[in-house]
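Researcher: I'd like a candidate sequence for this fold, 277 residues long. If you have to choose between options at a position, lean toward the conservative one.
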């Protein structure tokens, strides 16, 4: 675990590989953290310098109550992190909200700096599935004023029936994914300190529609979606394919929103092939 200061805040990241190699910045999704990329970064580190970031407000990074958690602000911070690490050009892999941020960087902030772009269930139109928008965002609205709800729910993570009910939208078949594989993800999702940042990030996602910005992306682009994604509409993946010249779309069968866990081998093969060409 390493740290870098951006706007006076501590941003935590993990690095893999030699810093002299081409760089890849990896961005997690809403309620997630940098550890979601551990496996794929470990596979890429032989030829690339991978930097898996905890976005401001999440993971082990600072979680200030009054920070700007907009997609634009988070995107600008990624460019600042790259500059702080001496990266003039870099690739980005982003999941869900991280995919939205990655596309924002590659289209509106610094398209000339992004060499390759991979979005995994990336949000384009600012919309998530109704269960997410009505349920999770509603929960964060309440928990913002009663932050102890996070710690209460966190204690319920010891009960499998709660885990199944709370996280079923993450996967197509939740019982087929070993619980231990994503135990840290569950813990991070219910950290009490995210009571402001999670709510602000959820609202920020809804405010950004990147459809008209997509043609500005000049990076070689790959979009990956689980065909059974219950979080982000798969139509967003088709939209990237349509609007970004020369982009690729890969659909993974019998897979939900977290292909890096549910269909790890297939996901890794797709990503490795993209970065080997």
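Model: Candidate sequence:
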């Amino acid at each position: 675990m390493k740290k870098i200061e951006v706007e006076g805040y501590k941003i935590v990241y993990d690095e893999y590989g030699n810093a002299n190699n081409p760089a890849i910045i990896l961005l997690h999704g809403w309620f997630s953290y940098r550890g979601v990329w551990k496996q794929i970064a470990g596979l890429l580190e032989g030829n690339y310098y991978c930097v898996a970031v905890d976005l401001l407000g999440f993971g082990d990074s600072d979680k200030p109550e009054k920070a700007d958690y907009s997609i634009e602000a988070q995107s600008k911070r990624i460019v600042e992190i790259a500059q702080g690490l001496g990266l003039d050009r870099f690739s980005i892999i982003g999941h869900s909200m991280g995919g939205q941020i990655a596309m924002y960087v590659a289209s509106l902030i610094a398209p000339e700096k992004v060499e390759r772009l991979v979005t995994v269930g990336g949000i384009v139109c600012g919309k998530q599935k109704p269960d997410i928008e009505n349920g999770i965002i509603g929960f964060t609205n309440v928990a913002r004023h009663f932050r102890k709800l996070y710690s209460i729910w966190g204690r319920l993570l010891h009960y499998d029936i709660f885990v199944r009910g709370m996280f079923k939208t993450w996967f197509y078949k939740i019982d087929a994914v070993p619980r231990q594989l994503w135990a840290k993800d569950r813990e991070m999702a219910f950290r009490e300190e995210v009571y402001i940042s999670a709510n602000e990030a959820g609202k920020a996602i809804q405010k950004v529609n990147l459809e008209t910005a997509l043609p500005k992306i000049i990076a070689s682009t790959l979009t990956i979606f689980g065909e059974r994604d219950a979080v982000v509409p798969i139509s967003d993946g088709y939209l990237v394919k349509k609007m970004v010249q020369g982009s690729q779309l890969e659909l993974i069968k019998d897979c939900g929103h977290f292909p890096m866990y549910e269909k790890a081998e297939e996901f890794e093969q797709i990503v490795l092939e993209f970065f080997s060409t």
